[in-house]
Amino acid sequence: VEAALENLKEAQDQIVRQEKMASLGALTAGIAHEIKNPLNFVNNFADLSRELTVELKDGLAREGNALLPDVASDVTDILEQLEMNLGKIREHGVRADGIVRSMLLHSRGSAAQEQPTDINALAKDALNLAYHGMRASDGNFNVGLDMDLDPAAAAPIPAIPQDLMRAFLNIANNACYAAYHRKAGEGGRVALRTKAAPGGIEVRFRDNGDGIPEAVRSRIFEPFFTTKPAGQGTGLGLSITHDIITGSHKGKMSVETEPGQFTEFVIVLPSRS
Known about the structure:
Elements: H1 2-62, H2 69-107, E1 115-117, H3 119-137, E2 144-149, E3 157-159, H4 161-180, E4 189-197, E5 200-207, H5 237-248, E6 252-258, E7 262-270
Parallel strand pairs: 2-4
Antiparallel strand pairs: 1-3, 4-5, 5-7, 6-7
Helix pairs in contact: 1-2, 1-3, 2-4, 3-4, 4-5
């Protein structure tokens, strides 16, 4: 019996590791797509800036490096364009850096310290990464995304960002999956809403999928329970997420759903201020 229990524990540990690797794989696919956009902007604006610099040098060379009136007016215009381009390069460089940090947060181990965390940014990145991760694995995947982020919810609260990213990504993946596989086969949408609440922040992920049957609603946070077809889920995503929210973050997590209409996961994170 002891040997059987030990084997079962090893098997469960292996499944947990596989679940984490699967979510990391989805995140990596999303990262690859997400980071491509800001890098394209950086490269394009860098090329434009190089062309403007060449144009400025050529203009000065023609006039013997003397700033005659017609050349001076061009210099002002070129410098303004260069300033704008450099601003765009910085903006999208910061965005690319943020995406990489999101990946690092998710891939690191869980032994980490709390730090002030922007919940709006974390939840938004999780939804975008889940969306692009699914698009990378299924070329036909497409759902609409709606975001309503309360500016007051951007005020940093204490959290372990890599764990919270993992939790948000699990919920976002489920929402995208449900919206995509709804009965109509089209018109799937996922909504993310945040709201500053008394003593904390409320985060809602909602999909217009087929909902959760009442018969299994009470089991959705149980380890190894899943409503997905065999081979498409380990049943650990929501269990891990629930532990992260209610355990280390002392928050609350619940689900609101109507079969055939929607599912909405509601997370409340305390500010502890």
